[in-house]
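hey so i finally got around to running both of the ones u sent me last week. sorry it took forever, my laptop kept dying halfway thru and i had to restart like 3 times lol. anyway pasting them below in the order u listed, first the sequence line then the structure token line for each. didnt double check formatting much so if smth looks off just lmk and ill redo it

first one:
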Amino acid sequence: MATRALVLGGGGPVGIAWEAGLAAGLAEAGIDLAAADFIVGTSAGSVVGAQLAMGRSAESLAAAQMREAPLPAAAEGAGVGPPPDLTGLMAMMIKAATFEGPPEEMRAELGAYALAAKTVPEEAFIAGFGRMDGLGADAWPGHRYTCTAVDALDGRFVTWNAESGVPLGRAVASSCSVPGIFPPITINGRRYIDGGMRTATNADLAAGYERVVVVSVTGNATVPAGSPQAAMLERTRKRFDEEIAAIRDKGGEAVVIRPDDGALEAFGVNLMDASRRLAVTREGIRQGKAEAVRLAEMWR
């Protein structure tokens, strides 16, 4: 059987809900994403990917997202109250879009921004991931699961897996540490931030696998033409195309799943808005059932 990889991209609490629903809709239609030989998750995708790799059913993931009671606020980002203000982070990301120096240098700037921000205490944030419905703070699903992070001090991109010797809850928390919103996570004396500061998907990590499903929460984002965000979006899409090319250059088949119009409407304008979880999960389930037709031949 051909080797298969699953890439789950970042996108805040909204992304967690949509990816959980998507996986559940696909499972209902007979497509088990958890059967992948390799799962890589970034930010929101690290949460969903870890639980799928640990053997939790996609249906139970979606059900948890649709419960009235929120999951731990630390893990979700905003269990109550208004969603976090992303203005500062967006300004940094726009700067990154036009930065011409080494990418590590710009990521270190993002790390410095994260280290200076006032956020929830680090241990409280980590604790939310240790309680995620049986995920466990220390258990690892095995070396086929990897999540991503960035060193806040030098901008170096890192990956965590079963061989890293890092508690799973701490590794996932680092992958989800959105600069300016959540605290950088201490691992082996270093501080780490969201792996999405490299790219939202880091799909090139799946190069070498024969069949790859790439789930891109932000892949259909739109911004006004000529706006400061337009350059950021253009660079993001160029980098994503390079990641897919890396998979295909190694002989792999890559299928990309992006939110459709119905899902985007449910998303709203702020991916950190956890209040949209119920509607977003339902849209994910619907879209997953529809996408199953496209994945039927390549994934089974």
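and the second one:
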Amino acid sequence: MTDSQSNAGTRHTVVVPASINMVALLGPSDEHLRLIEDAFGADVHVRGNQITFQGEPGEVALMERLLDELVALLRTGQGISTETVERVIGMLRAETSERPADVLSLNILSNRGRTIRPKTLNQKRYVDSIDKHTITFGIGPAGTGKTYLAMAKAVQALQAKEATRIILTRPAVEAGERLGYLPGTLSEKIDPYLRPLYDALHDMLDPETIPKLLAAGTIEVAPLAYMRGRTLNDAFIILDEAQNTSPEQMKMFLTRLGFGSKIVVTGDVTQIDLPSGVRSGLRIVEGILDGVEDVVFNRLTSHDVVRHKLVGRIVAAYDEFDATQESGGVSRRVERRGDRA
């Protein structure tokens, strides 16, 4: 590799190892290359397996690190997409201690040719917390993978015989837990609330094995009300949509913990569907359990959304709107009282 200085900034040439497929590295029709040029405001020239960066010294140094990370990912056998390049750039700019290649190459679960991995630094920290702690909270907006990754860890634990069963639960809050008023059998009444959990299971296990595991009780999917009075040993337990629990329900659930078990609690405090006047158990639990050993809270943000990139922008826009509403709340209340006067 060579360096030189000019009025146009630093010029730096890197030789890509011969074992690396340049098309995989640069993308179809050089789309990764164009993305890098736009992201760093620099000129990038390719000749054979030599890549020359020209721009501001700091940006050129980041581009070299980016290239190292992309090469490391390709060496693991993992493909690279424009989304991968964007995520690596974001991590490098955040100046984290973890290498992006280590974050993006962590395999949690593989099934039918599909591998589930964390896609952001916060997701990897969340997954690591599940490994290290007995009770883990994953709090964040829709699309951040908090439930999906927890379920992948649960299936991984079952396959590794670290747990003898998986218990998945969520509150059926829209029915106020009073399911008797709905038509149909009990199974038909609760199914709409539990369907997202079944959908995730089908991504992680062979579909023909799921009915057998459910029938044997190895996997249990049930509304939160069914947890009362039980002690759950040797289980991986996930409470989803925890923002819709009352403080009493949250306490009831957490105290179901038995020997050899792990609990993961997931929720989004911006999407509470509880009746007016009912506090969310997820909102207050961190203040209660803060400092309790072996309990950890992980927060994911709009930057961790792994659905369509527009979802992340929508979440960020709503966060900004909510912050504006809260900061202006006092003046609006005064205005309303003035109007009534």
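quick thing i noticed on the 2nd:
The radius of gyration is 24 Å.
anyway thats it, ttyl
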